[in-house]
Amino acid sequence: MSRIQTTFEQLNGSKALVSYITAGDPDLRTTLSLMHSLAANGADILELGIPFSDPMADGPTIQRAAERALAQGVSLKDVLALVAEFRQSNAATPVVLMGYLNPVHKMGYTAFAQAAAAAGVDGVLTVDSPVETIAPLHEALKQQGIDCIFLVAPTTTEARIQTIASLASGFVYYVSLKGVTGSAQLDTEAVSRKIELLRKHIDIPIGVGFGISDAESARKIATVADAVIVGSRIVNEIERNPGNEAAAAGALAKTLKNAIS
């Protein structure tokens, strides 16, 4: 049983907080502190962004984070080494790598999956890899016991949802808004209707991200989803608190977790 599955089972119906940060923002040492702080303050699953030069699905906040990481030369290998270091003192909190296909493709799917498993990675989400072409990566991850996590958008057709359901493991990430990360205008009723459709086909947990920026929006989404995914708001807190990033992000995580508990 994967750490992700174990985490959801241990929650026993309570809602998971999934927190996103960009690896290497503001630096790798601080990222490690952030991971520990988030986990200690209520984050049930950590999403670790792989810095990429063309983050087309991300809004300005996460784009700036990626730029700061890339300016220091942070690579996919650095991200894997970071997870391995985190695992030295935290063997329980699931870590999901989230990013774009190019760095993974460059390393090679089999080599990446093997390295990710050795580091202690639990799931991988490549935002620009459509379900129709993901087979080589999916198979490599499956062989290593790593969950392949998929995005579902408001515009995803029912037929495509069925295809995703046949391949996804860990959890499914529902993008609650059209647009990039950090977008506003969250419509809980629309999210609820879409999740009702998703549950007809998907039998693993469904997390909702995009547009969740505070305790109130997290609480609303927790009424309809299995997990609340927060990224840009946490990254913004990191950006606004130089020298105090881990404490600030941890305080926010505690507030969000209390709101959905």
From TrEMBL:
Single GO term (MF): tryptophan synthase activity
Catalytic activity: (1S,2R)-1-C-(indol-3-yl)glycerol 3-phosphate + L-serine = D-glyceraldehyde 3-phosphate + L-tryptophan + H2O
Superkingdom of the organism of origin: Bacteria
Entries under Pfam families matching the protein: Trp_syntA
Enzyme's top EC category: lyase
InterPro entries xref list: Aldolase_TIM, RibuloseP-bd_barrel, Trp_synthase_alpha_AS, Trp_synthase_suA
Pathway: Amino-acid biosynthesis; L-tryptophan biosynthesis; L-tryptophan from chorismate: step 5/5
Enzyme Commission designation: 4.2.1.20
Coiled-coil intervals, chain numbering: none
Active-site residues annotated for this sequence: E47 (proton acceptor), D58 (proton acceptor)
PANTHER family named in the record: TRYPTOPHAN SYNTHASE ALPHA CHAIN, CHLOROPLASTIC, TRYPTOPHAN SYNTHASE, ALPHA CHAIN
Function of the protein: The alpha subunit is responsible for the aldol cleavage of indoleglycerol phosphate to indole and glyceraldehyde 3-phosphate.
Record-stated family: Belongs to the TrpA family.
Protein's name in the database: Tryptophan synthase alpha chain
Gene giving rise to this polypeptide: trpA
